[in-house]
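Risk mitigation, structural track. In case the binding assays with S-adenosyl-L-homocysteine fail to produce interpretable data, a predicted complex structure has been prepared as a fallback.
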Amino acid sequence: MLHDIETEARYTRELIGREAFAPRVMQAMAEVPREKFVPPNMQGAAFENGPLPIGHGQTISQPYIVALMTDLLEPAADHRILEIGTGCGYQTAILSRLCARVYTVEVVRELGAAAADRLQLLGYRNIEFLVGNGYAGWPDHAPYDGIIVTAAASHVPPALVEQLEHGGRLVIPVGEPYGYQNLMLLEKDEQGEVSSRTILGVAFVPLVEAGHDKT
Ligand code: SAH
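Fallback model:
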């Protein structure tokens, strides 16, 4: 799986602006047991470089995309990171290895509860869970050094930009539900000015937006 990620990173270097991901990101990818996050009948495919279904119409993301989004976020050991879309908790586990604290929000109650149980069982302790609509972020713990959204939004939710610390980074897929989507990187500089760039085309499940809460 690590080899596939490295190969794909080299293959997409023009788009992602780097030859390889940070060694500590690859280390986290090596250490988190992906097979513990996929359904029992999918164990055989746990280390293939592709997404897999996790129930409730949701997926565990492709390992290369998890590595790419983590690398773009540039998590540091003292960072507090907000994740929208806990899903099975795989991306959450990767982030928990790389930063001080992860705040993660999931709109589907069963998935959020299952991820919290799973991560607790696996011994990840620096994570706080919330079941709710992450379109509004999680204001209680803002501002965050980094924010990652693992579902595709039609636009960048304003609350997430507000909840980003100066000098922070926001990684989010933006586009049509089940249609054309781009991974975007937003950076808020020390003066609070926000700039953004498009990284590459992606395929994510849709983000539940304002007023469409499933819980
Ligand atoms: N991060 C996961 C991928 C999750 S798939 C991984 O590591 O593989 C996207 C998740 O986002 C789904 O579980 C979906 O239910 C959730 N989601 C969609 N809209 C949301 C919203 N508005 N707030 C919080 N979670 C949301």
